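It would be a great kindness if you could assist me with a short task in structural biology. The matter concerns a single protein, recorded as an amino acid sequence and a row of backbone structure tokens. The record follows directly beneath this note:
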Amino acid sequence: MFPPCSTTYSLANTAWNAANGYQALGTNILYYTGNIDLSGYSMMDMTFATFETAYQDPGIYSNTNPAGVAAGAFEKIEIIEMITDVPFDIPELTILAADMGSTVPGMLSTKQDFKQIIYGRYSLYVPNSTLGLAGYMQLVNAGGFGSKEPTAAAKLYVYKLVKATTNLVPEDGENISFPASRCGLNGRMFSEDEIPYLMRLKRSYELQQLVD
């Protein structure tokens, strides 16, 4: 589960104020991190296999001026949500955010292994002033990029990055709001033969060392 967020722009700090667990990454990006504990299963030498994924996002995305009565300065909001079996550090998240709209982790020209991205979703929102809702951002594109690769990791890592783009200077007190969302992995735990399991653990460890 990713929590909702309503945050305002600080002209003095040239950045969005962090809110409700989200942290600032540069001047126009917010990110949230969490994890899913699978250590109880990994201690029993079990592997988790994802059969299908689910995504829930029932709310409204908006970008309004300080008074909250008109659209804000942003031309688009891009979002990536991921579940991985290795952690991403700040430099990697920064590169990931910079590449939004052209590529996503695990694709060609990126350094991430596609198999480590168990679940991934990219979405693009743009302003829509025809509905009479101040600052309403409408979804115009969304797509998945996860591998659903089985994993023997003791912990899965979850990320949500929200990137707002503009050619204008946001006003002091300008607001961005977006709802809570949920990514689901439907699958099962199972026991593998010893050699495939050990090879999976070895690969997971090697990827962890590359990140560290």
In short: The first helix runs from residue 39 to 42. The chain has one domain: 5-211. The chain has three helices and twelve strands. The chain has a mean pLDDT of 86.
